[in-house]
Amino acid sequence: MAYDVTSVRKHFPALADGTAFFDGPGGTQTPSAVAVAIAETLTSGVSNRGRVTAAERRADAIVAEARQAVADLLGATADGVVFGRSMTQVTYDLSRALAKNWREGDEIVVSRLDHDANIRPWVQAAEARGVTVRWIEFDRETGELGKLPLGERTRLVAVTGASNLLGTRPDIPAIAAEAHAAGALLYVDGVHLTPHSPVDVQALGADFYACSPYKFLGPHLGLVVASPALLETVHPDKLEPSVNVVPERFELGTLPYELLAGTTAAIDFLAGLVPGTGTRRERLAASMRELEEHEAALLNRLETGLDELGARRYGSPERRTPTALFTLDGVKPKAIYEHLATRGVNAPAGTFYAFEPARRLGLDEGAVRAGIAPYTDESDVDRLLAGLLEIAK
Questions:
Q1: Is the CB of residue 383 less than 8 Å from the CB of residue 17?
Q2: Cβ-proximal residues to 206 (8 Å cutoff; 6+ apart), any chain
Q3: What is the phi-psi region of residue 217: left when phi exceeds 0, alpha when psi lies from -120 to 50, beta otherwise?
Q4: What are residue 133's DSSP bridge partners?
Q5: Which of 97, 99, 146, 189 could bond to 137 as cystine, CB 3.0-4.6 Å?
Q6: pLDDT tens column, 273-317
Q7: Mapping DSSP to helix (H, G, I), strand (E, B) and coil, where does residue 150 land?
């Protein structure tokens, strides 16, 4: 079963102007089916959810379908899918809710490898409760995560499923086993992992798994999944009239129905990346495995070219997403970014909210990041390398 990137690219109107997009880690382009689903929802009769009018039933169905689609994508339970404005927002909300049960002298563990959205909410919640923060360090040369500083009072471990800066994929099942043995919960930031690999939250051992549809071809919102039984033990602040059932009690206000419809469409698109039969979950697994192979080959092509140019690449983890972080000697990252943009190649420079790893790597001015997406092809990679050769001379 071969991945046909030429066929996939035909579904992305944004590619029509010839731009090569390597900024997927900050948000992917969307296929036409997603835009159609959003537009059709906005132009159909919808209202607050209910079972009386057609508009109410339509809204109710959109939410149920989106929860099931996410459950199929992540190997989760539909009743354990919580939607929010962004991954950052749902993580802040859950950090405050979980912290209600923390006591002075308790500890939490966060990672120096993570995006700040999976660091600062927990650090700030810990500070508010008098809870100690422990840090997992990482190897500056390889980008691999180090040993977990767990103790008898550890209540939560927050770690990335894949670094949005270096691409590092920590061994989440092993981390989960250690965290659970210590009696701690595990919160996984899956924002950068979900677009590039089949995900099974139960196999990973994640108690909470957060991600963002706009990183996997969908619209701008965030979500977190957990078992309904675990969510029943968490009590967020909410309005008195709002329902207290799971997962709705975590979703403040009316959900964005059009974005949920777009999320379902994005997941259906991913399930059809390669021809196949079976359940949506089975088709997603097959498609994501083929996508993983396609992206790995392009990453190898990109890194080989970077090495030939004499670029400095950061991190060489054993397992990674198709993400390259690099600099060129004597050229500021921002200048590389701007030069590539004039060539129709979008490969941004910066620290990308991964402040802790950037500091540890000494990247005060950031670096250039090139992320490969489902619509990236060999010609995109070659154009990126050609643009770098121009500025490196």
A1: no
A2: 161, 172, 176, 186, 187, 188, 190
A3: left
A4: 108
A5: 146
A6: 999 999 999 999 999 999 999 999 999 999 999 999 999 999 999
A7: coil
Task: Give counts: helices (H), strands (E), the chain.
Answer: 13, 13
Q: How far apart are CA 198 and CA 186, in angstroms?
A: 19
Encode burial over 130-165: b for 16+ CB neighbours within 10 A, e otherwise.
Answer: ebeeeebebeeeebbbeebebeebbbbbbbbbbbbb
Q: What pLDDT is stored for residue 1 in this prediction?
A: 62
Q: How many CB atoms lie within 10 A of CB 191?
A: 26
Measured N-to-C along each axis, helices 257-271 and 54-74 cross at an angle, to the nearest 10 degrees, of 40
Average pLDDT over residues 140-168: 97
* 107: helix, strand or coil: strand
Q: Integer distance in angstroms from the first to the last C-alpha of the chain?
A: 41
60 C-beta neighbours (distance < 10 Å), count = 17
Residue (of 193, 128, 168) closest to 318 by Cα position: 168
CA–CA separation, 230 and 226 (whole Å): 7
Distance CA 90, CA 120 (A): 13
Determine if the pTM surpasses 0.90.
yes
Q: Is the dihedral of CA 237, 27, 340, 336 positive or negative?
A: positive
Average pLDDT, the chain: 97
Q: Which amino acid is located at 155 in the chain?
A: R
pLDDT band at 349 (very low <50, low <70, confident <90, very high): very high
